[in-house]
Amino acid sequence: MTKKNIFFFLGFGQTAKYFVRELSKSKKKFFFSATNTKSTQKKSFINKSFKSYKFNNNTFDKKIILELLKADYILVSIPPQGKKDIVLKTFGKVLSKAKFKKIIYLSATSVYGNHNGKWVNEKSKLKGKTNFGLRRKIVEKKWLNFKNKTNFDVNILRVSGIYSIENNVLKKIKKKGIYVKEKKYFSRIRIEDLAIIIKKTFYSPRKSLILNASDDKPSTNIEVANYAAKLMRIKKLLPIPISKFKNKMIKDFYKDSKKVSNKSMKNKLKIKLKYPTYKQGLKNIFDNYR
């Protein structure tokens, strides 16, 4: 009888859901459960029943401990709470006694900070100074300390800007018709490709990887906005200086400019991306999901 793999998702947002969809395409048998911030309840997702347990800061369903102890694979997608990782703070001792095969912490390429449009890879200096970058740097270090203390298979994926059918620049351009005036380089990943990267990482014989989850073509915000406008036949966009935005998160985001290399990820996981650049990814959304 084929053994079913047991997954536990700390956070069940868009990324975890797309990962479940990707797992469902394979022949692998699996069970999963997850956390949410409201209440413990039975749920269903793409015809799969699962248990979702309450976990909201210091309040959590004690049954999560049992789920962590029996899980084969654990995916952590809960962002930092200030400068702390709520998962390690709450369940660090439990995890140190668990017998999982592999854990993945989803970090972000904001840890690299600003490199003035130059290339970065997994060995580059982590210069993140914004709230995004600084918190991710601190939490990554906590996960690496946990790995060193336990010798467990802890993996970190530094994820670039995620776009999807549900959330993409086409919708933003169509709604507002504006883009940030200043030229900044960013890397992106379509969520279906991210799901494949997560799956490949979980099932890779390689251990304790730190990888960038990015597509092949880092590009400026202006290039991407103009391509989106071209697809939608919008003739004129309005460039807005960063200083005009009131949202501090947007201002912080545009402080950084870098090209994130995915060579290590592609080589170590033997991945061929379905959407290697933003052009394939956006064209597919435009043609099929408008």
What would you note in describing this structure?
With about 290 residues, the protein is α/β, with parallel strands linked by helices. About 35% of the residues lie in helices and about 25% in strands. The strands form five sheets. Strands 1, 2, 3, 4, 5, 6, 7, 9 and 14 form a nine-stranded mixed beta sheet that branches. A two-stranded parallel sheet has the order 8-17. Helix 1 crosses helix 6, helix 5 crosses helix 7 and helix 7 packs parallel to helix 10. The longest helix has 20 residues.
* Mean pLDDT, all residues: 96
CATH class: Alpha Beta
Q: Report the sheet-strand fraction.
A: 15-25%
Shape: globular
Radius of gyration over all CA atoms, rounded: 19 Å
At the fold tier of CATH, the topology name is Rossmann fold
Overall SS class: alpha/beta
The number of helical elements comes to 10
- Summarize the amount of helix as a percent range: 25-40%
Can you summarize the main beta sheet? 9 strands, mixed
First-to-last CA distance: 44 Å
Number of domains: 1
Do you know the CATH architecture? Answer: 3-Layer(aba) Sandwich
Instruction: Note poorly predicted spans.
Output: none
CATH homologous superfamily caption: NAD(P)-binding Rossmann-like Domain
Order of helices and strands: EHEEEEHEHEEHEEHEEEHEEHEHEHH
| Strands, count | 17
